[in-house]
Design goal:
Elements lengths: L2 E5 L4 E3 L5 E6 L8 E8 L5 E7 L8 E4 L1 H5 L13 E3 L4 E13 L1 E4 L4 E3 L2 E4 L10 E6 L9 E9 L2 E7 L10 E5 L4 E16 L34 E3 L6 E4 L9 E7 L4 E5 L7 E4 L9 E4 L11 E8 L2 E2 L4 E5 L6 E8 L5 E6 L4 E12 L5 E3 L4 E3 L7 E15 L5 H12 L3 E7 L8 E2 L3 E5 L18 E6 L3 E2 L3
Parallel strand pairs: 2-16, 17-25
Antiparallel strand pairs: 1-3, 3-6, 4-5, 4-8, 7-21, 8-16, 9-15, 10-11, 11-14, 12-13, 12-15, 13-14, 18-21, 19-20, 19-23, 20-22, 23-24, 23-25, 26-27, 26-32, 28-31, 29-30, 31-35, 31-36, 32-33, 32-34, 34-35
């Protein structure tokens, strides 16, 4: 008995792409054969799912796609006030796959049949007991009365006797298989174990997934990446914008982890990564990069004449991601809106909307007509009513707020990233105010919102040199009206 691994997903995979395992079993030709897949939270006895899978027609392989299961195990980690680093336990999940098998319990006999008191004796070592109902399948024709359902009437060392007359046997040398009539099975678990695999909250586009390599995100070389699809070189952000980039802390393993920042003046700064989860969230935006320690130069990182800054991940003094450059966009009005959104790799990107903003509201209410109670004027002996009495009554009044937002001009890379904002399931916005001669804008708290815009054009600069985007958002929670 053996189960061999044919194909597995990569050790770290996006949860919303295929997560397929293929296995081959040496017993897969047995009657009633099924592969058993036991899925565990890695390193624990917490079984999150169990599947029984028939062998694939033709190849006999056991195939299972765990993407739907593992999608339910990841979500996101959003800490809007964080300016350092945080563990991201909800953004990833570690799992084990333990593969076993199940097939109909069978006793095969090859020794010729013999007579036992006028009934058929089958000569084979077995574990049957008197009264067992069994099903006999012979290797060929010759003994039709023995074929099918029988009852065990006697057992002994190395034989069993069934209630089939010996006189009807015409071919005593015919081999056969014996099964329990109730379909009893033999189950063996944990034959092949695939341990310590990870998924993260990501969904890689169809054309990019075949070329995905998890090692590109394991923080072991200067060309590796954060878990994000943000543009690496052509990203512009205002001073109010926040960015949180996820990184695979567990890739390089223990050691000294840091985020290194530098600006266009050649100054460099560092921030220690104190979170230790397999995936961490790292605050790196213009507004939320937090307190930095100078390496070369003086604080702050962003000065009034700074054109751009960049950041990368460092492990034990070695650069282990590519540089991500952020150009400072100073084309702002006194007030701007910015939206952070969950991007395709589970990080939090951001866009600023420095154009005109239009806020609109829609009131929804339920109305019903009630009888006007009025009153009886005892002096006149007449029923009357007050002009302030109500017939129609308003109930369950709520206010929906929508905001139309407009960006400034952007490049093609940002326009492509913007499409992820439009389709992102989780978005939050804030309003920032720039006072005169103030480099640090004052911002409101983030408020949850939903993107109402449902269509977009993916602009190319060869078709349109100047690219602007407009969207409509709706607050995720309605204002309630008292009554």
């Amino acid at each position: 008995m053996a189960i061999f691994t044919i194909a597995t997903p990569q050790r770290l995979t996006p949860a919303y792409n295929p997560i397929k395992f293929y296995f081959a079993g040496t017993n897969s030709g047995n009657a009633g054969y099924k592969f058993i897949f036991d899925i565990y939270q890695s390193g624990t006895a917490n079984k999150i799912a169990e599947y029984r899978v028939l062998p694939e027609y033709g190849s006999g392989y056991g195939l299972i796609d765990l993407s739907r299961l593992l999608q339910s195990k990841v979500s996101f980690d959003f800490e809007p006030n964080n300016t350092t680093v945080y563990d991201a336990p909800n953004s990833h999940y570690q799992y084990d796959v333990r593969v076993g098998e199940e097939y109909l319990t069978v006793v095969q006999y090859f020794t010729p049949l013999t007579n036992n008191g006028g009934n058929v004796q089958i000569n084979v070592v077995n574990s049957f007991v008197v009264g067992d109902q069994i099903n006999i399948v012979q290797a060929g024709p010759g003994n039709p009365n023995l074929e099918g359902l029988q009852t065990v009437i006697a057992v002994g060392a190395g034989y069993l006797v069934v209630n089939s007359p010996w006189s009807l046997i015409t071919n005593a040398a015919l081999n056969g298989n014996i099964y329990y009539a109730d379909g009893r099975t033999t189950i063996t678990r944990n034959i092949n174990n695939i341990l310590k695999y990870y998924v993260f909250n990501g969904a890689i586009p169809w054309t990019q997934w075949p070329s995905y390599l998890y090692t590109d995100y394991y923080l072991t070389s200067p060309s590796d990446k954060f878990l994000t699809s943000i543009p690496q070189r052509n990203f512009y952000a205002t001073l109010s914008q926040d960015l949180w980039m996820n990184a695979v802390y567990g890739g390089p393993g223990p050691g000294t982890h840091k985020i290194i920042f530098y600006n266009d003046a050649g100054e460099s700064f560092e921030k220690s990564v104190l979170a230790t989860d397999h995936v961490t969230g790292n605050a790196v935006g213009p507004n939320n990069h937090g307190t930095l320690t100078p390496i070369v130069g003086t604080l702050p990182l962003i000065k009034p004449n700074t054109e751009y800054y960049a950041y990368y991940y460092e492990h034990n003094g070695a650069q282990v991601t590519t540089d991500y450059r952020v150009y400072i966009d100073r084309r702002v009005r006194m007030e701007e809106h910015s939206i952070v959104f969950l991007d395709r790799y589970g990080s939090w990107g951001s866009f600023a909307f420095t154009g005109r903003a239009y806020e609109r509201g829609t009131v929804t209410r339920e109305q019903f007509n009630q009888d006007v109670p009025g009153y009886i004027d005892s002096g006149a002996g007449q029923w009357l009513y007050y002009t302030t009495d109500r017939g129609y009554i308003n109930s369950y009044v709520s206010v929906d707020n929508t905001i139309d937002l407009n960006t400034d001009w952007m490049n093609e890379d940002m326009a492509a990233y913007f499409t992820e904002l439009i389709s992102s399931p989780y978005t939050y916005f804030k309003v920032s105010t720039y006072y005169e001669n103030c480099e640090l804008p004052a911002s409101t708290q983030y408020v949850s919102c939903n993107i109402v815009t449902s269509s977009f054009e993916k602009y190319k600069q060869r078709n349109k040199n100047l690219i602007k985007q407009s969207i409509t958002i709706k607050l995720a929670n309605n204002d309630i009206v008292n009554g």
